[in-house]
Amino acid sequence: MTTTKKRGNGEGSWKKLGTNKWKVTISVGVDINGKQVRKTKTGTKQECMKWFKSNQEISNNDYFYDYAMKWLEFRRNSLAPSTYRNLRGRIRAMSEINNFKMNKCSDKTIMVIVDELVATKGKSVIIAMLSTLKQILKFARDRGTINFIPYIPKIQNPLIQKKIIIPSVEKIREILLLAKFVGGYLYLCIILGFLAGLRIGEILALQKSDIDFEQSTLVVNKTLTIGEDYKTYIKEGAKTDNSNRIIYVNEKILKEVMFCFNDKKFIRNKYTTNASKKVSMFFKQVGLENFTAHSTRHVFITLAQEYGISPIFVSQYVGHKTNNTTISVYTHMPINKQNQKLDDFICQFLD
Fold first, then answer.
1. Which of 19, 81, 229, 332 sits 20 to 30 Å CA-CA off 10?
2. Which strands form 21-30's sheet, in the order they lie side by side?
3. DSSP label at 101?
């Protein structure tokens, strides 16, 4: 025998199937033919209640911002804090352009957002925004909130090489000396950026236990990230699976790294939220305009290849997923130097 418990204007019903087992059915909208779409969950009363509440939270009458934020909350546990913050910012930006009612979504309402983004944002931002928008609309379509996903124009994301002026070896030596004088985490970021190609998050997450003097290696398997409360913490795992690595580092560099760890100022300020900004300010003071902590990674990759180190080795060393990223995005060898290397190669065979 089953018992039925009605829920709100035919939105759902509960049935007790037996000892500790329930079945709950809810309406989630209508399909393209106007037929009501329902979803069902069977489990314990606690499991069904949790499922029921999560599915009832989103209303077809919600405005875009409310609907999208609820969609984001559904995904929260599977997202890194930085990804969650980025998605939240994109949702807010798009809703400020056009905060339409979800059940009134159409090609026209979406194009209002697209047109404004195209007029005011760069390509990379537009592509990220539209990708998020498409995910939200797909979620709405799957739930029956909308009958179809409105047209979203495809914007190509060309591989654009960021132009970075590669400083000379003499300039880098000068910068390293000045950075050592400043000390603290700033010196660590600069020496491991220029001479090991590490990301700043990887550098600031390093621990003494990651250093192996006997093998002259450094373990890179953590990153410093900013949580939802805008405080910093160490997250296990580097940026990607390929970024988790053990790399050879010259003994002289490892001694400098240990010097930083023994610096009380470094220990006190290591987990600062504005490390990148401080490094950029330092570069500006030493004459490198628009230079950032990440620029040092570009410099390391370019100079290593210019010196003759294999691009494949460099790619693995810095934790890139593909060699193409290393060569196309991070290599900034001037054409005249490449021509000179070609001449040197050809002249071996000619008198």
1. 19
2. 4-7, 12-18, 21-30, 36-43
3. B
Compute the distance between CA of residue 251 and CA of residue 173 in angstroms, rounded to an integer: 17
Distance separating alpha carbons of residues 132 and 139, to the nearest angstrom: 11
Tell me 210's DSSP state: G
Dihedral sign, Cα of residue 175, residue 276, residue 219, residue 212: positive
Q: Where are the beta strands (DSSP E) in the chain?
A: 4-7, 12-18, 21-30, 36-43, 211-212, 217-220, 222-226, 232-236, 245-248
Q: Which residue has the tokens 């700033």?
A: 186
User: What does the pLDDT look like over 19-33, one tens digit per residue?
Assistant: 778 888 876 544 445
Cα–Cα distance for residue pair 128/89, rounded to 1 Å: 11
Give φ, ψ of 214 to 5 degrees.
-65, -40
Distance between CA 285 and CA 130 in Å, rounded? 38
Q: pLDDT tens for residues 253-267?
A: 888 888 888 776 655
The Cα-based distances of 334 to 73, 89, 145, 270, 325 in angstroms read 47, 38, 54, 36, 18
- Res 4: pLDDT: 44
Please report which helix (H) or strand (E) contains residue 125, including its range.
helix 123-143
Q: Note whether 162 and 133 are within 8 A (CB).
A: no
Q: Which two tokens stand for residue 300?
A: 């390391």
What distance in Å separates the CA atoms of residue 341 and residue 88, rounded to the nearest whole number? Answer: 49
pLDDT tens, position by position, 118-159: 888 878 888 889 999 999 998 888 878 888 888 888 776 544
